Amino acid sequence: MSKRALIIFLLSIPFLFILNHFISNPSLFSPYALQIIVLMGINAILAISWDLIAGVTGQFSIGQAGFMAIGAYSSAFLTLNYHIPLIFAILFSAFLSLLAGFLVGIPTLRLRGDYLAIATLGFGEIVRVAILNMNCLGGARGMKGIPILSSFFSVYLVLAISLWFCLSLLRSQYGRMLFSIREDEVASQMMGVDIVKYKVFAFALSACLAGIGGALYAHWTSFIHPDSFTFMKSIEIILMGVIGGMGTIYGAAIGGAIVTLLPEGLRLLLEQNPLLYQNKEFIRMLFFASLLMIFIILRPQGIFGKKE
Amino acid sequence: MREELLKVENLTVRFGGLIALKGVSFSVFPGEVLGIIGPNGAGKTTLFNAITGAVIPQEGRIIFEGKDITSLPPHKRARLGIGRTFQNLRLFSRLTVLDNVKLPAGSPYPAFAPPLLLPSFRKGEEKLNEMALELLEKLELKQYKDRPAKALPYGERKKLEIARALALKPKLLLLDEPAAGLSHQEAVSLMEELQRLREEFNLTIILIEHNMRMIMGYCERIIALNYGEIIAEGTPEEVANNPAVIEAYLGEQE
After folding, report:
1. Structural domain boundaries enclosing A58
2. Could you give the 3-state DSSP secondary structure of residue B62?
3. What does the radius of gyration of chain B's CA atoms come to, in whole angstroms?
4. Inside any domain, residue A257
5. CB contact under 8 A, A174 and B114
6. Residues of chain A contacting residue B99, judged by C-beta atoms under 8 Å apart
7. What is the pLDDT of residues A57-82, one digit of tens each?
8. φ, ψ dihedrals at B231, nearest 5°
9. Does some domain include residue A167?
10. Would strands B6-15 and B172-176 be described as parallel, antiparallel, or unpaired?
């Protein structure tokens, strides 16, 4: 990354800090607006995490919600029971989801295409059902009363760091190796790339980021439930990545923000019509599904992807 | 007697019931250009795949610089110095020409160096750039360096594959039909270029080629394969006049 990028990154920290004061001020921004803005940031982190493994490395994983759940529950468990600061909770959940990424990645990344998708889908469901049956994590009651430790500042700081980390990695020899795996696995091996090692590397990093996103999410909403991390959540994350543009990272981040914002606009429209409002969940699903199809047909490279 | 660079012993590859290679044995000596000919389906590309590790042979051994590499994974063989090109071009098509050539050099810095902007990252990238630009310069591809590989004309893509393989700093270069699909003129100039590169980089080359005229003029020794077996070995003249080779190519004499 260039010097200029570094300066932008470093300047963004005090900028976020100042912005935090304005955005968190209820007389300037309604709690509703703040809610949306913070969720946009969290979803951007999740979309980046998916883009790293699917868009950059070409391994179509659909278990992102599973890693997110691991991060959310492990960090919430710590802050609820041991009252530790957010940063340590995040570091712990990052470590745990990284570990989970390694453990899941080593056997599953030998699979290709559809098989990998099914295996990661299965993993996500296993995590969800396991949590559902664990009383210490609240089981089917969910976990409530998690201290609200996430803020606009912490979420967007983590987003800035993730963007910096992923983008600089992408512009290095490591990024080239990950891209080469996506482009042609056989040729990549023949050019000296240990493809199993770098797939696991990308998968674990992706899991780690999803876990961090989950931790921020838990400490923002203050209530988490296994239903927050269903297969549909993984699909939503994929939608963000696809709309933003796979393999660009920053595109995924913007995709995450857009996909968070759009349903809110939709809600405003629906509220004017009681009949539509009654079926709002149905319309929401219809809307997401059509959006995904429209993008795949008309602009498969996403908003920011380069034209094929 | 010179020490052989590559020694293939009794190599057998089966795909289910199909025998692609049957007890193939030969040696390649440093600095040599060995040609491999044979009709379609004779097992030429399978032989390359077995040497580079893309397919695992059921029997036999592959020895490179005195070391048994039969069970080594492909990326380790590449690092030992076995580079190759592909018959149907397998470039990283969405990466730039420059990135295609930088990739095979491996990483000179650890993964945490780029985000932390460590000096090892900057220096490593400078070196990679220098190396890649030098190779592109030699193959006259420098003007395309920032274009995606797939945007290049066919002949240039073939040259890019050679540049990419050279970035591995190979001792042994396997070329799978480098002249296929090129016009006669392009093919001749490519062969001249290969000759130059071979002297400059001290390469040993194994070459698969369909164009008989090309292979006759360029190789010192030729192996003819048919149905996975070596049917003839020798100088170009010997092989071209070998009755078994003529039969394999043209059919039995009436």
Report:
1. 31-228
2. strand
3. 19
4. no
5. yes
6. 176, 179
7. 999 999 999 999 999 999 999 999 99
8. -105, -15
9. yes
10. unpaired
Contact at CB, A191 and B168, closer than 8 angstroms: yes
- Can you give the pLDDT at residue A166? 95
Candidates A146, A174, A179; CA nearest to A248 is A179
| CA–CA separation, A119 and A208 (whole Å) | 18
User: Which of the four pLDDT bands, split at 50, 70 and 90, describes residue B220?
Assistant: confident
CB A15 within 8 A of CB A23: no
Question: Using an 8 Å Cβ cutoff, are A170 and A56 in contact?
Answer: yes
Q: How is chain B split into domains, by residue range?
A: 6-81+169-250
Check CB contact under 8 Å for A164 and B91. Answer: no
Whether B87 has its CB under 8 Å from any CB of chain A: the answer is no
Rg (CA), chain A: 19
Q: What is the model's pTM? A: 0.91
* Residue B29 sits at the chain A interface (C-beta within 8 Å): no
Tell me, yes or no, if A193 comes closer than 8 A to chain B by beta carbon. yes
ipTM of the complex: 0.91
- Contact between chains at A186 and B90 (C-beta distance less than 8 A): yes
Find chain B residues with C-beta within 8 A of A177's C-beta.
103, 107
Q: Is A3 exposed, middle or buried (CB count within 10 Å of its CB: 0-12, 13-18, 19+)?
A: exposed
Which class does domain B6-81+169-250 fall in? alpha beta
Residues of B in contact with A176 (CB under 8 A): 95, 99, 102-103
* Nearest-angstrom CA–CA distance, B237 and A119: 57
CA distance B81 to chain A (A): 9
Candidates B86, B93, B167; nearest CB to A183? B93
Measured between alpha carbons, how far is B44 from B87 in angstroms, rounded to an integer? 11
* Domain count within chain A: 1
Instruction: For residues A220 and A78, give the distance between their C-alpha atoms in angstroms, rounded to a whole number.
Output: 15
Q: Which residue of B has its CA nearest to A163?
A: B115
Please list, residue by residue across A162-192, b when 16 or more beta carbons sit within 10 angstroms of its beta carbon and e when fewer do: bbbbbbbbbbbbbbbbbbbbbbbbebbbbbb
C-alpha–C-alpha distance, residues A15 and A84, integer Å = 27
Within 13 A of B173's CA, how many CA atoms are on the CB side?
Answer: 27
B211: closest CA of chain A, how far (Å): 25
Inter-chain CB proximity B104 and A191 less than 8 Å: yes
| Main-chain dihedrals φ then ψ at residue B224, nearest 5 degrees | -105, 130
Judge whether A155 and A216 are in contact, CB under 8 Å. Answer: yes
In angstroms, how far is the first alpha carbon of chain A from the final one?
25
Confidence of residue A285 (pLDDT cuts 50, 70, 90): confident
Inter-chain contact B73–A194, Cβ cutoff 8 Å? yes
Please report the DSSP string for B188-248 in residue order: HHHHHHHHHHHHHHT-EEEEE-S-HHHHHHH-SEEEEEETTEEEEEESHHHHHT-HHHHHH
Residue B84 — φ and ψ, nearest 5°? -150, 160
Tokens of B224: 């003819």
Q: Tokens representing B78?
A: 């590449």
Q: Name the pLDDT band for A306 (thresholds 50, 70, 90).
A: low
